[in-house]
Design goal:
α9 links the parallel β5 and β6. The longest helix has 22 residues. It contains 15 helices and twelve strands.
Amino acid sequence: MATITGFRIADIRFPTSRSLDGSDAMNKDPDYSAAYLILDTDTALSGHGFSFTLGRGTELQCATIELLAPKVVGLKVEELKSQLGHIARDLVSDSQIRWLGPEKGLTHMAVGAVLTALWDLVAKLEGKPLWEVLADMSPEEIVSLIDFRYIRDVLTPEEALEILKKAEPTKAERKAKLLAAGIPAYTTSPGWLGYSDDKMVRLAKEAVAEGFTLIKLKCGGSIEDDKRRLRLAREAVGPNVRLAIDANQVWSVDEAIAWLKELHGVDLYWIEEPTSPDDALGHATIAKAIAPIRVATGEHVQNRIIFKQMLQLGAFSFMQIDSTRVAGPNENIANILMAAKFGIPVCPHAGGVGLCELVQHLSMFDYVAVSGENDARVIEFVDHLHEHFVTPVEIKNGRYLAPTAPGAGGEMFPESIKKFTFPDGEEWQ
């Protein structure tokens, strides 16, 4: 029986600020980074997880993971699957560490990194990709993973069980469809705010040729720049490709409404993160004021409790879960089930190092085991840094192909870890 014997943590930073990949109105010079965790066992098996960061401050996230990782040393890998609900609640509830959150920020993201690494171990032990491990679990097993504290007024265990059981009879059919055709993606690769107009137009045209039917541009730097870039983008992609924009939290509520009312004639599909990710009421106000433009948000929503409030208020049309912001797969399963109850499609955020690799599993679990067919479902894709992962995402004709390799998808090559570890890696010398 394999036992977790220790852990290793690395501060891995990629200098994406040099080419302005990832740049937006709020994050002008990001270095896509990861506070990276490896759980070692007394066998060849190892579990990999991380929290996504933007460069400076990654050392703080690493330190927080180091506080929590000792809690899982000594656990038996073969017993993890049946214990992961309890383990998740224990990690979140440390009587001293939780004070630093609670259930938000560095501590919650650290819980997510640890849980992702544990799920990676489970999936590798079973010889399946994580999405399939989750999809093959019984409704009762799935419900046991969820912490219903604080959300029971919106989603009870009984309701969650009902949603999952309703999807059971057609699960096998959807799994076959997923393996055959994948899930639609959308791309942000053309839309970084630091790109020139020419580069944006060229990449937008290439994205359409590659089969993407939704393209997202960053916005919020200048109203005149936004008008010009959106006009050029619409001309580049034609009338049948959806255009979305992303403000990355830069506006106040009134500013968001006024700004969006200036953007005429380009047929916007959604506005993402129009204001503070903590402002559920503000999102609801914006959503009502700017209709028929839709609101999408979630990449910085800190936990299931804020998602609950946003769903109650009708604050968005698309839930954008992030694989490393909340407490790992467990809490995201709760988010997915709440969205299903409200009839809201889950369109995950994946703009960052390794996020595509991780979040695809959650979206595919959602499709197979929870919400089923939904024409509005898409997963974000950015064409950056996939070469550093052992099992990188596969995109074909604008769709995510279902991964078949065992694990949660976040394992990096040792050479990449060594080269990009800050500050001693070769890339940072």
